[in-house]
């Protein structure tokens, strides 16, 4: 950690001496000569850039022959060399373009918040079949994991230590998080990265958006952008663990000066690193767009179908350590059968508890989006969008020698059971955003959404009594949010950002869950989430910003299922951000500090409900305190370095562990004082070092994740060891031909686990702790080829 910090400080000092030309310019409307506030001015082929102020002014320090790319919504983009950029006139486009669909929910240079933008070209460099979380792995404060160990199938992402249920995900501003669990299941959207034009990751509460509350961050994706010319594209890749990916893409280009059609078909298969963790993933994307002078309409349809062998159980710690005596102790105290014991002892790090042939998860999801934007006048325009998602599927399980009374069957005492747990759901609604851009002193957006979810949960036996249904429930959730955002110019050097959101939702569920748990909940929540930020432009190269934001979120479905008698309280957070940014001809640097103060955060304490299921309870007070450093630096004409480092402290104040004593069946309360929040490493670092010459590019990609605790006790015996991985990416692009990519993952063969869980209990006067881990693959590779025509 000390070496990484020293390196960052050294580079910051070095870049101060970089000499380059100061470029000052103004961007304005070609016809009216009015300045354009919020136009982006970036250096072609780099991440360096700026945004024009209320007078259309921008400042950059670049070489005189650097090529600048200037963009503004509703105008044709322009490329110009820096020595000719003092006065830049943009021409209004003959039609609106796709960028309008995400501006309402994205942060910009004056939002006073921490965020990262990832382009389609950056995603494409590593898009050889791995899920979206893995493609975002090297962005700041991000930790990713994979159940199958090879980043295909069930994968997850944490931002600032917050799990998927606390990370808001949208596609074109439309919510993707499951309404009940509040998580995002990327396995239902295989190869979606191939249809994404850009991603913005906001860290912390972020700007007001649609859908689930963002407690750790948000992932805002925009799908394919306008393609003026017809094209076709074929991508194929394969590698370790039988992984194969095939993608076909095509587009019509502009038809009749107004219409476009784009499509994609994808298939990904993989055996997985873990035993029997195979995936068979199919997906498609179709989009038809109309581009008029004052209106933009796009109809999107994307679908995913997955069949994934379950690898959810994890691997016992004794199997990870390879200790035969510890494995035997685990076998004895958990009463494993001879077959189960043999599987454990002889499997190695690839152990999978499940051995039934069809222990699979099967799910399909269809998304329909109607995206529109209408220019009402020169200063007013509105987004009006509609969406519908239909999801259905089940996971199948084998339960040996099960008590049939648990399934409502009295004619059979016990039998080997094959069962399916089903989910069938509909999600539909509308989003809107009204924009005002007619003043040189302020911009204004008023937006919101109405969304409704209807979910049907039920269980059906496959064997021994096919068709017997033993539980069924119905859920309905209505989510309404309204927000108003404004950016105000206070002076030549000061900007203020104000964002006010009101969110209300009603959540009803009735019926029964597994083990005949009765469900009867009807709850309504109302949240007010204000956000305020200030940005001060210190000089043409540097600025500081500060913001304070409030976030709130309701409990998940499982919280109600696990707590049928006492509903948990909603969670709240106040997020304080303070940042500094500086840029030069060859570098960009950001230092961001944050303090996230939580009230009633829902955490696992070790408590169980009446049927022995672990439950989350509200922790009165907890916080995350950290600093994020990001540095992009051009070391030479061909060598580029992008690095990030997060140092944090993540604590629960006065944590109380609850442990079941099976001698007395009482809950033992253990006071731990202030403890670390589970799955929240104090150090996260990412590094990409790229060398480029002609058609060849090679990158070293490094990731370091510090120690993570499996629960909130700060017990060293319940933790995931720190790990560091090194990947190498090689890419060769022929001038008029295919491009080839080789990914060498974990080249140093680090044996590590990225996730896990734990539980403890007392029996016979002694405390037993069971730790489970999700081992990740050692050295592996993927080789891909693509051609566009």
From TrEMBL:
Residues annotated as domain TonB-dependent receptor-like beta-barrel: 334-747
Q: Name one Pfam family in it.
A: Plug
- Please provide, alphabetically and separated by semicolons, the GO molecular function terms listed in this UniProt record: siderophore uptake transmembrane transporter activity
Instruction: Show the coiled coil region(s).
Output: none
* Cellular component GO terms held in the UniProt record: cell outer membrane
Q: Where does the record place the TonB-dependent receptor plug domain? A: 110-217
Q: How does it sit in the membrane?
A: Multi-pass membrane protein
Family that this chain belongs to: Belongs to the TonB-dependent receptor family.
Q: What is this protein called?
A: TonB-dependent receptor
Organism per entry: Aquirufa antheringensis
């Amino acid at each position: 950690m000390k070496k990484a910090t020293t390196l960052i400080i050294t580079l910051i000092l070095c870049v101060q001496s970089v000499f380059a030309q100061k470029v000052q310019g103004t961007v304005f409307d070609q016809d009216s000569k009015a300045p354009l506030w919020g136009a982006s001015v970036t250096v072609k082929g780099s991440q360096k850039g700026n945004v024009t102020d209320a007078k259309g002014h921008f400042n950059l320090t670049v070489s005189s022959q650097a090529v600048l790319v200037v963009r503004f919504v509703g105008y044709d983009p322009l490329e110009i060399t820096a020595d000719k950029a003092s006065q830049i006139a943009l021409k209004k486009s003959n039609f609106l373009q796709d960028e309008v669909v995400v501006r309402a929910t994205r942060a910009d240079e004056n939002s006073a918040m921490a965020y990262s933008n990832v382009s389609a070209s950056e995603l494409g460099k590593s898009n050889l079949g791995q899920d979206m979380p893995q493609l975002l792995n090297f962005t700041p404060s991000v930790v990713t994991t994979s159940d199958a160990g090879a980043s295909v199938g069930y994968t997850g992402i944490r931002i600032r230590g917050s799990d998927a249920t606390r990370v808001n995900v949208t596609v074109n501003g439309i919510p993707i998080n499951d309404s009940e669990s509040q998580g995002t299941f990327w396995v239902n959207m295989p190869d979606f990265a191939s249809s994404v034009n850009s991603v913005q990751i906001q860290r912390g509460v972020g700007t007001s958006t649609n859908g689930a509350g963002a407690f750790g961050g948000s992932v805002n994706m925009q799908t394919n952008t306008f393609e003026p010319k017809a094209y076709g594209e074929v991508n194929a890749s394969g590698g370790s663990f039988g992984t194969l990916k095939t993608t076909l893409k095509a587009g019509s280009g502009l038809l009749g000066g107004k219409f476009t059609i784009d499509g994609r078909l994808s298939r990904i298969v993989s055996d997985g690193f873990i035993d029997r963790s195979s995936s068979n993933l199919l997906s498609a994307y179709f989009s038809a767009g109309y581009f008029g002078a004052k209106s933009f309409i796009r109809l999107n349809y994307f679908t995913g179908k997955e069949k994934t062998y379950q690898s959810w159980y994890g691997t016992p710690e004794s199997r990870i350590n390879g200790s035969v005596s510890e494995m035997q102790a685990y076998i004895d105290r958990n009463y494993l059968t001879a077959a189960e014991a043999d599987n454990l002892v002889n499997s190695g790090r690839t152990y999978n508890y499940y051995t039934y042939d069809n222990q699979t998860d099967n799910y399909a999801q269809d998304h329909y989006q109607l995206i529109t934007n209408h220019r009402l006048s020169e200063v007013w325009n509105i987004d009006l969008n509609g969406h519908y998602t239909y999801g259905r599927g089940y996971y199948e399980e084998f339960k040996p020698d099960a008590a049939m009374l648990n399934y409502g069957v009295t004619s059979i005492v016990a039998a080997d059971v094959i069962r399916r747990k089903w989910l069938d759901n509909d999600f539909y609604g509308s989003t809107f955003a009204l924009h005002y851009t007619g003043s040189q002193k302020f911009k204004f957006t008023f937006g919101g959404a109405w969304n409704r979810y209807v979910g049907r949960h039920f269980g059906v036996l496959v064997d021994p009594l096919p068709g017997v249904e033993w539980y069924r429930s119905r859920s309905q959730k209505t989510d309404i949010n309204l927000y108003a955002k404004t950016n105000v110019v206070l002076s030549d050097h000061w900007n203020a950002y104000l964002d006010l959101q009101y969110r209300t939702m009603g959540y009803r569920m009735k019926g029964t869950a597994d083990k005949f748990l009765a469900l009867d909940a009807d709850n309504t929540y109302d949240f007010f989430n204000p956000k305020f930020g200030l940005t001060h432009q210190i000089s043409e190269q540097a600025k500081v910003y500060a913001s304070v934001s409030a976030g709130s979120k309701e409990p998940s479905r499982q919280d109600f299922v696990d707590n049928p008698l006492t509903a948990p309280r909603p969670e709240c957070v106040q997020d304080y951000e303070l940042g500094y940014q500086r840029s030069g001809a060859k570098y960009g640097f950001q230092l961001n500090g944050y303090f996230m103060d939580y009230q009633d955060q829902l955490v696992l304490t070790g408590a169980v409900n009446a049927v022995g299921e672990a439950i989350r309870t509200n922790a009165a007070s907890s916080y995350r305190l950290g600093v994020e450093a990001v540095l992009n630096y051009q070391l030479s004409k061909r060598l580029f370095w992008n690095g990030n480092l997060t140092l944090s402290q993540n604590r629960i104040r006065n944590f109380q562990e609850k442990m079941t004593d099976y001698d007395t069946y009482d809950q033992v309360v253990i006071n731990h004082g202030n403890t670390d929040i589970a799955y929240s490493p104090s150090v996260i670092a990412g590094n990409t070092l790229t060398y480029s010459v002609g058609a060849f590019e090679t990158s070293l990609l490094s990731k370091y994740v510090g120690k993570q605790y499996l629960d909130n006790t700060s017990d060293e015996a319940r933790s995931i060891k720190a790990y560091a991985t090194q990947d190498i990416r090689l890419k060769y692009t022929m001038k008029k031909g295919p491009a080839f990519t080789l990914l060498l993952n974990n080249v140093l063969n680090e044996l590590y686990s990225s996730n896990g869980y734990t539980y403890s209990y007392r029996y016979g006067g002694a405390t037993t702790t069971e730790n489970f881990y999700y081992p990740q693959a050692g050295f592996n590779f993927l080789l891909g080829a693509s051609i566009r025509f």
